[in-house]
Amino acid sequence: MSTTPALNEKSASDGPADTYRDSIRRVLRSILRSGTATIACIILLTIAFAAIFGPALIPHPVNALNLGARFVPPSWSEGGTITYLLGTDQQGRDAFSRLVVGARMTLIVALCAVLVGGSIGFLMGLIAGYVGGRTDAVIMRLVDLQLAFPSLFIGLVAMGLLGAGVVQLILVIAITQWADYARIVRGEVLKVRATPYVDGARALGLSHFRILRLYITPNVMSSLVIVATFSLAVAIYYESALSFFGLGVPPSIPTWGNMLSQARDLMLRAPWLAVFPGVAITLTVLSFNLLGDWLRDYLDVKLRN
């Protein structure tokens, strides 16, 4: 009799909150066991902190001109000063402040583009894989047509037609990415649709919506998360490339791509203006790719077992 309350207390303690905490602990332990994933997370958390809180902590306004301090080199170089940690540009603007603030717009564009493109691709892949038939054939021909052209080429043409702007840039990057999501989600849906428990759900008379919500969608989410992680790296690259060509975010808004664009004619005179945003783009893209590799291994049941 005395053991029943103890068992009940233990069952009550093993609720959703405890399960959630255990999952978080497992994820953190797995990240810490992987050196590359740990480094990637540290870099991405640092960049996220700069994007969220950086604008309130920067030493100089990003567009404040100081023609008397033009082309000041980084603080550790000869002629540099601690006032301008990473030097200044041709208009005397602080490179460090612009680099920090540029992280915000760069990440906003990438996240929004992945959200829009992933949603479209997920929906199209879900419909193609579950409905099949002519619907599947039409959607997959659209995917093949999309993948037949280089994504950056599509982005350049589309931005040339639509004009520069943040909203246009997000939509163009999303359009270049939806096909990747649709192709992968369709493949996962086809595998799940053929499983016995989906057949059993149909035999019990469950609606298509309930089958998609309860059985199909949860089983494709892991692949969707992995693709989204890699897509963030691609979106940052596209934003930087299109802004570099003057077809992305307007030059008045600091982004890493705009900083590279404004520094391309100054490589010999002030190389630091291109080096620091270039390093920031490289580290961010590399970190998302490393995190995607870790996620792929972590979510693969066969590799975990």
Q: Return the CATH architecture.
A: Orthogonal Bundle
Distance from first to last alpha carbon: 39 Å
Low-confidence stretches: 1-13
Helicity level, as a percent range? Answer: over 70%
Secondary structure: number of strands: 0
Describe this structure in words.
The protein has 305 residues and is an all-alpha fold. It contains 12 helices and no strands. α4 runs antiparallel to α5. The longest helix is centred in the middle third of the chain and has 37 residues. The protein is elongated and about 80 Å long.
Main features:
single chain, MetI-like fold, 305 residues, 0% strand, mainly alpha
Topology diagram in text:
Elements: H1 3-13, H2 16-33, H3 35-57, H4 95-131, H5 133-147, H6 151-162, H7 166-193, H8 196-203, H9 208-244, H10 256-263, H11 272-299, H12 301-304
Helix pairs in contact: 3-4, 3-11, 4-5, 4-7, 4-9, 5-7, 6-7, 7-9, 8-9, 9-10, 9-11, 10-11
